[in-house]
Amino acid sequence: MTEAATLSTAFTKRFDLSVPVIQAPMGGVAGPRLIAAAANAGALGNLPIWFFPADTARQVIRQTRALTAKPFAVNLRADLKQEELIALAAEEGVTLFNLFWGNPAPSMPAIRRAGGRLIATISDKDGAKAALDAGAEALIAQGVEAGGHVFGTTPLAELVPAVAELAGSVPVVAAGGIVEAQDMVRAFGWGAAGVVLGSCLIVTDDADAHPGYRKALLEAKAGDTVLSKCFDGFWPDAPHRTLKNSTYRMWSEAGFPKSGARPGEGDIVVRGPGGAEIPRYHAATASGGMSGDYEAMALYAGTGVGRMREARSAAALIQDIVAAAAGNLRGAG
Ligand SMILES: Cc1cc2nc3c(=O)[nH]c(=O)nc-3n(C[C@H](O)[C@H](O)[C@H](O)COP(=O)(O)O)c2cc1C
Q1: Model-wide pTM > 0.85
Q2: What is the DSSP string of 58-103?
Q3: How far is ligand 1, taken at its centre, from the CA of residue 174, in Å?
Q4: How far is the C-alpha of 69 from the C-alpha of 36, rounded, in Å?
Q5: Using an 8 Å Cβ cutoff, are 119 and 141 in contact?
Q6: Which is it for strands 277-279 and 268-271: parallel, antiparallel or unpaired?
Q7: Theoretical Cys-Cys bridge with 148: which of 266, 286, 300, 321, CB 3.0 to 4.6 Å?
């Protein structure tokens, strides 16, 4: 057996990890199996629970805990009042809270009461400053390259150096379009102490993605993603990066009409495992167990498509990227 790759940075030291990687919290595809696989590979697993009712959140935390003895974070929205979820996660032994989409300061009393530590996702300097003032122990700098919902408009090459300068000794972890070792090396050159892997983990067996979504990600070419507000059902007015698919093309060919006047609006394109109807333009992710025209759903993807490669296991992918980046960084150093 080959030895597991490790790479020590200010981020790994602060959170007792063996590789400077955060598995992206990804609603609908990052469940207990992916979180545990990442955590067991020495990365920080990050479980999104912000959209769950309390009893489901408790259940998925317990399911994750059954698969790994390593600590993992939970992911919550900063713009929603999620104190109840913070408290229940703490009851279940979670101490790491990753807040995104807004200023985390209002959630800090609940995080402090829970004895928790804040990792804040930010997309610009003002957001970084607010998160640092609130007591963030690490920052995830999400660049405009990222798949999923994207708060900011700044590319990582600009965002990471600016935020790293502000953050001082607080480690900055880069998110967006990172799919191979050279991306990690480049992010470190900008001042990052870690990277987030999102879209590239969706194609592994540990993710809960619909097989068609996984295939679409692997077949997509560079430039096949777009940042838009196309899929606004459930979460209106929130920009997101997806593959340009049939729904996006229908909307763009109609001249991007406003919500309520879009072609095919109200079509039920997919059903969830329990039969729930998912209409066109809904923000739901194409998860396993869904049936119907998954291709018409929001196929969230970062700009790394076209360079992503097939990988069966999240652990193997994380290990390969870190080993190659570590070799490259040693060579450079
Ligand atoms: C399918 C999908 C769902 C996502 N859901 C969330 C989420 O629930 N919470 C969150 O903080 N970020 C979410 N994101 C954004 C990721 O955390 C991360 O910023 C992004 O995946 C990084 O870009 P990449 O996909 O190019 O690696 C999501 C991304 C994707 C692709």
Answers
A1: yes
A2: HHHHHHHHHH-SS-EEEEEETTS--HHHHHHHHHTT--EEEEESS-
A3: 12
A4: 9
A5: no
A6: antiparallel
A7: 300
Amino acid sitting at position 141: A
Average pLDDT estimate for 170-196: 98
pLDDT of residue 41: 97
d(CA 264, CA 314): 36
From atom 6 of ligand 1, which residue's Cα is the shortest distance away? Answer: 26
Q: What are the structural domains of the chain?
A: 10-207+308-332 (3.20.20.70), 225-296 (no CATH)
- Cβ of residue 300 lying under 6 Å from some atom of ligand 1: yes
| Of 61, 16, 65, the residue nearest 43 (C-alpha) | 16
Measured by CA distance, the residue closest to atom 17 of ligand 1 is 24
In 143-288, where do the E strands start and end?
Answer: 148-149, 172-175, 194-197, 225-228, 240-243, 268-271, 277-279
Question: Residues in the chain, how many?
Answer: 333
Looking at residue 169, its pLDDT comes to 98
Atom of ligand 1 nearest to the CA of 200: 27
CB of 26 closer than 6 angstroms to any ligand 1 atom: yes
Checking if the pLDDT of 55 tops 70, the result is yes
- Summarised one tens digit per residue, pLDDT across range 142-157 is 999 999 999 999 999 9
Which tokens in the block code for residue 56?
């489901």
- What is the rounded CA–CA span in Å between residue 278 and residue 272? 7
| Residue with tokens 């807004």, as numbered in its chain | 102
Task: Report whether residue 187 contacts ligand 1, using a CB cutoff of 6 Å.
Answer: no
